[in-house]
Amino acid sequence: MTVIEHEKYRVLIGEPEVYVDNQKRKRSGHMTHAMTEFAPGTFIDFNANCSATRCGGHSVYGWVEYRISRDAGKTYSEPKDFPYSVESFLEGNWTVSVEKAVTAPDGAIVALCLRNTMLDEICCEPWLTPMCVRSTDGGQTWGEPYECIPYKGRIYDAVVHDGVIYAMIFCNEHFLGTSPEHVYRVYTSRDCGKSFEELSTVPWPDTTRRGYCSMIFDGKGILHAYAYNEAKEREMDHAVSADGGKTWTVTEPSYVAKGIRNPQTALIDGVFILHGRGENGRDFVCYSSEDAYHWDEGVYIGRNAGGCYYSNNVNLKDERGDFLLIQYSDLYEKWARVNAMHRVLRVERK
Question: What DSSP line would sit under 222-267, residue for residue?
């Protein structure tokens, strides 16, 4: 177990457990780590079933699976194929990843899907316009996919607050920003994921060499947004909104001592958690904060280079109390053949 000690709390991070053994089935699992709880202790957990040979496993050439847990992650159903991804793959037009999933106020599972052309070897860009698919019966069946945002790009995060679904997209066909038109836009759905409308643009003055992003509401209703800066991997761009994402104030960048790529955020027992790939794409790092502005020195919870440590999380509860389930990719063989792993994170107040 890894422990982060602070004056008022400690963060306890359990040992890794294999969720999907891609090594055994000679596959890989690049991207698609979305999870969302849709009933108490019941959540859907997505994973990728991808080629282990194309681009050394660092590719989304394949399809998406999912499992259901009804006991807060102790056991899981047999895997099911996500129909939209399988159909898209067989048609040969594009591949589909489920970057994020949320539970709408009416209980529907809303899967926010990234579409990738199959033209590049890595097969996860250039990106097309994102799609949305809903399930109203706990993942047993899925509705028709629809284009939820008219811009080509990648929805990096989605959250639900006060009955509204928020989604943040980096409008860019490729990973890193290169021109002023590559901006971060926030979209909202007020009809449980049946449609989305544009709310705002985060006014970061320069999105050159930016990519990835994350957002989270704090306990006071402030919405925080973060973006990755390839030129300064120890400084996350940071902006806050006090009116539900309508207007934004750009703050000083948030310093992270060990760097961050593909940042993922969560709030548990009043403590903010940040995890993702470390500086230069090496290692898996985890930080904590009490204000979402200032982060601790962080700890390494995985030490590897290569195409791994993409991650996601979901807040859950068991007999011991609240915990964060973290899902991530971990190398079983270089360059980027990965298993899907789980770790449990808990916060203890002193």
Answer: -EEEEEEETT-TTEEEEEEESSTTSS-EE-PPEE-TT--EEEEEEE
Cβ-contact 330, 338 below 8 angstroms = yes
- For residue 173, the SS3 value is coil
CA distances from 142 to 81, 89, 109, 115, 190 (A): 11, 17, 9, 17, 20
Q: Which residues fall within 8 angstroms of residue 344, CB to CB, at 6 or more apart?
A: 13, 14, 73, 323, 324, 325, 326
How far apart, in whole angstroms, are the C-alpha atoms of residue 328 and residue 70? 21
For 109-151, the pLDDT digits (tens) are 999 999 998 888 777 889 999 999 999 999 999 999 999 999 9
pLDDT in tens, 39-81: 999 999 999 999 999 999 999 999 999 999 999 999 999 999 9
Q: What is the DSSP string of 72-136?
A: TTS--PPPEE-HHHHHHHHHTS-EEEEEEEEE-TTS-EEEEEEEE-S-SSS-S-SB---EEEEES
Give the tokens for residue 74: 């102790």
- Provide the whole-model pTM: 0.97
